[in-house]
Specification:
Elements: H1 16-25, H2 53-65, E1 68-73, E2 78-83, H3 87-99, H4 104-118, H5 131-144, E3 150-154, E4 161-165, H6 168-177, E5 183-189, E6 192-198, H7 203-213, H8 222-238, E7 241-248, E8 251-259, H9 265-274, H10 277-281, H11 287-302, H12 322-326
Antiparallel strand pairs: 1-2, 3-4, 5-6, 6-7, 7-8
Helix pairs in contact: 3-4, 4-7, 5-6, 7-8
Bound molecules: zinc ion.
Zinc ion (ZN) binds at residues 155, 157-158, 160, 308, 310-311, 313.
Amino acid sequence: MPTTPPISHYKDETQDILDKEIDKEIGNAQVSEQTPELKVLPVKKPEKKPTNASNIVSAFRQKLSSSTTPIELPGLGKTVEFKEISTREQKEMSKVALQSNSRPDIMYCTMVSLINELAADKDFDIRELTEFERIQVTLNLQQMNKINPEIKYTCSQCGKETTYKLDTAKMLRNFTKTFKPEQEFKIENGNRTFVFNAGWSKCGLVEDFFKNYYKKYDNQSKAIKESIDNMSQIEYMLMFLKSVTLVENSDPDDKLTANLEEMTYGERCQIIDSIPQSVLFDENVGVISKIIKHYIEPMQAVFKYKDCPFCGAEQDGAVASLADFLGG
Ligand SMILES: [Zn+2]
């Protein structure tokens, strides 16, 4: 499985000016990144006690990075200790969000590598867990770090702007309740039946999907970027397919199974692309409609915006991206 580069990978070197602007705005003292330069000058006045700033800096950092909070991970059957998000990491996330214009692939990969950096157990890899657990960990980390981002939206009915503060503790409780195990969906198609196994995919696969899918994003027009963003939501749903079996109706023993979970992202795509489109996308009987009903809608209900406080109109939007989550 390919490894995710560290957060700093996504920093554009030409963004120095932007960095400085952000640093100015949030009053970055740059202590943590410049430790080696903080050399103690020789003390000239003997009446003053000698201080050792660099020792204090490293003792400070060591002490703060060694305190952790456990997060329960049902998929692993254990709890994992996580460090709190430091100010430096939070700034880094904000920079990545700003510089990438909250591109879903970059935000996703950055979040995944941040989760791995925060885990105290270095053998831990969020990519091995399911996407359901990745969302749980994200909500847990927000709660632990007291991040309750605000989301601004404009009411589709009265046009007034509302600021909605996310309640991550409540979202975590409600999201956890939506868990559904793997399900089997049978779809008839002519002389064959397609039997799909569906469920929450591994986070690593979703990461591979984002990395591959957004390769064609750069240098595109705004309209094309928008359609790539829209299409990526359908592609995300296809990640819920774990295996597909073709059964000949005339002879139920004549079966061919593709275990999508064991394939690379590219191999998966080749299998999925060969399936008749109605089997996947038919509004009523297609497998995507079943994934939406069983997995996507319950999740959207948790992350849905509140109704407009001015006119009471129901809002269509949901907390869509990690940028929303992190207040990027
Ligand atoms: Zn309204």
